[in-house]
Amino acid sequence: LIPADIISKKRDGQALSKNELNYFIKEYLSGSITNSQMSALLMAIYFKGMSDRETFVLLDVMLQSGSILNFENSKEYIADKHSTGGIGDKVSLILAPLMAAGGLKIPMIAGRGLGFTGGTVDKIESIPNINTNPSMEVFKDWIIKNRCAIVVQSNKIAPADKKIYSLRNLTGTVPSLPLICSSILSKKIAEGIQGLVMDIKIGNGAFLKTKKDAISLGRLITNIGTFYDIKTNIVFSSMDQPLGRFAGLACEVTEALECLNGNGPNDTMRITFELGSHLFLQAGIVNDKNAALKKMQALIDSKKALKYFKSMVNLQGGQLDDFKNITKPKYEQLVHSNKSGIINFMDTEKIGWALLDLGCGYKKPDDKLDYTAGIEFYKKVGDEVKYNDPLYRVFNSDLIRLEKVSHLLLDTFNIGNKGKPLELIL
Ligand code: URA
Fold this sequence. Notes:
Elements: H1 3-11, H2 18-30, H3 35-48, H4 52-64, E1 79-83, H5 91-101, E2 106-110, H6 120-124, H7 136-146, E3 148-152, H8 159-171, H9 177-190, E4 195-202, H10 211-227, E5 231-238, E6 246-248, H11 250-260, H12 266-283, H13 289-301, H14 304-315, H15 323-326, E7 331-336, E8 341-346, H16 348-360, E9 374-377, E10 384-385, E11 390-396, H17 399-409, E12 413-416
Parallel strand pairs: 1-4, 2-3, 4-5
Antiparallel strand pairs: 6-9, 7-11, 8-10, 8-12, 9-11
Helix pairs in contact: 1-3, 2-4, 3-8, 4-9, 5-11, 5-12, 5-14, 8-9, 9-10, 12-13, 16-17
Bound molecules: uracil.
Residues 84-85, 111, 114, 179-180, 183-184 line the site of uracil.
């Protein structure tokens, strides 16, 4: 087998065999296939796509590159949630402890920022001293003790995704259906889960811009999930505007804490409960969606879900004392509306790239993130605004970047005569 020959085959639109994919991924992980060669293959896959069968093989090869967790004879239902990525999407931070509080085990392998979307792992790492990169044994121990933990791909857990994920991030090869599918499922199946709920985002701030593509991905994920004996549900939700009131790093953890304290914004709570109700139903601990919603509300009201968040952070070594103060940004600026009317469009992808510029994501692999950085959204699509009303509060601890981003953000909304609030669940 010759790497350049395999790349050329995909470049010319041919299907790759199991043998070829296996060879390519293995040699890439061992270092004998280079980042340049992998980048070329990823770009060829981006342009030429993959059949369902090839995607399945790619996923399986990626899965076999690492260990698979095994919670022998777990009394509790083991499940997880994953999103295809968005702006302000802190749902994993809320849902993992909420489901754990309800009696499920959630061994969550999450990711860092990818393209213009934020990463759950980057957000939770704004908590001082938190460990997101434990050994398999320690990860498993955390789950046994507290039923939920959030960790990152590592050399042991989903190693192929770890390496390919960061390369895709640097090479414009993120928004590819087979690459998204294999990336997500290689992590999720490695968790040894029995159930999965997927939040497939659609819209101008999502990798999938059309419902048609989202449905294809949903079908593929469901089919592959079923093959691995994983009960799989799909929720389609809008990413035509940011989710919740904040997007960024520490500010999203703070907002997740607000949600767990019962003060979450409607959109964030609605999608969290929609996803959570699927997992409670899969687990058989409720009989219908209404009972699931009631149960989740009770777990929020009693602060039981919050307690699981705190014990998760604690177990992972993180320190939440004085979190808001420690992560206070040095600088902030307001972005104002340029006319009166109704907001009828938000360029969510552009807001996502602006967040990278602000310090919330990686332009280069070893960029140091600014955990204090983020944006607060005062207005959303459908809201009426007057000339000079503040629309966003932008903050970080680097004034030069802040000024550049505040300027960029002037170009991320449209105000017209008409406009109505967006549907969240599609
Ligand atoms: N989330 C992932 O884990 N991988 C992707 O490719 C996209 C979203």
